[in-house]
Design brief:
two-stranded antiparallel ribbon, nine-stranded mixed β-sheet, 27% strand, alpha/beta, Stationary-phase Survival Protein Sure Homolog, Chain: A, 5 helices
Length: 259
């Protein structure tokens, strides 16, 4: 007899201890999904589509976890990056392949073409390569972790997003960004394009060697919402809208090189 409920693989790049991960898993359960949680054992932000893992004695360490408010939901901490975890699910780890990959809820927005570097988004794209649709979800809470994130804003939108995603072809990948405010205060959800550059701006400065201090690079991170093209995720999210963007999978363009 076929399973009665679709299976959601829940992962993230903030690690197994993230409250956003736990909230997303509870939201998927409430939306009627069977859930398996598998997330990095430590923070794996900025890993993009990396499938790197830590191998000891020929194995990647996997530890079972009990997550708050998720009794009966299997949860695992994995010594690997998010895309590695999703690929492992597609190569025989899980007894049943997931129907959908849900990644997040990420602390901070993932916008513009810089999502290439996001482990949150990388997990969903890895699932798309296996033919599984996916949704990466990020909370626009700035560059620091708030004391009381409004997970309810994401969870209020989640059932509708999942219902829409189920009508799309298998392997569809979406990235959603939600303002950090109560769900009741959100304006309408908008579909957005990817901005040329994300809201988070990174600048590198060089430090020369000085005596016993070695030289190196220093990272300066800022966030600005003033440069987004009309209709882009940066522009619409900066105006307060929750946004969702369909992301193209990696492909090729025959005849464009030598043709």
């Amino acid at each position: 007899m076929p399973p009665s409920r679709p299976l959601a693989l829940i992962t993230n790049d903030d690690g197994i201890g993230s409250a956003g991960l736990h909230a997303l898993a509870r939201g998927a359960v409430d939306a009627g999904y069977e859930v398996v949680v598998a997330a990095p054992s430590i923070d794996a932000s900025g890993t993009g589509g990396s499938v790197r893992s830590v191998v000891e004695d020929g194995h990647v360490l996997v530890e079972e976890h009990d997550l708050p408010g998720l009794d009966g939901v299997p949860a695992y901490a994995v010594a690997g990056h998010p895309a590695f975890i999703v690929n492992a699910a597609g190569r025989g780890w899980l007894d049943r392949e997931p129907d959908v990959v849900l990644s997040g809820i990420n602390y901070g927005a993932n916008t513009g073409r810089q999502i290439l570097h996001s482990g949150t988004v990388g997990a969903v794209l890895a699932g798309a390569h296996h033919g599984w649709s996916g949704l990466a979800v990020s909370l626009n809470c700035g560059l620091s972790i708030p004391e009381s994130p409004h997970w309810d804003a994401v969870l209020g939108l989640l059932p509708g997003l999942l219902n829409r995603l189920r009508t799309r072809p298998p392997g569809t990948a979406w990235s959603a960004n939600v303002p950090d405010r109560p769900f009741a205060e959100l304006p309408e959800l908008r579909e957005a394009t990817l901005a040329d550059s994300g809201a988070v701006q990174v600048r590198m400065t060089r430090r020369t060697a000085d005596g016993n201090r070695p030289g190196g690079l220093h990272t300066l991170v800022t966030e600005t919402w003033e440069h987004g093209e009309p209709g882009s995720d940066v522009a619409l999210l900066g105006a307060g809208h929750p946004v969702v963007t369909e992301i193209s999978q990696l492909g090729s363009r025959p005849g464009s090189v030598l043709g």
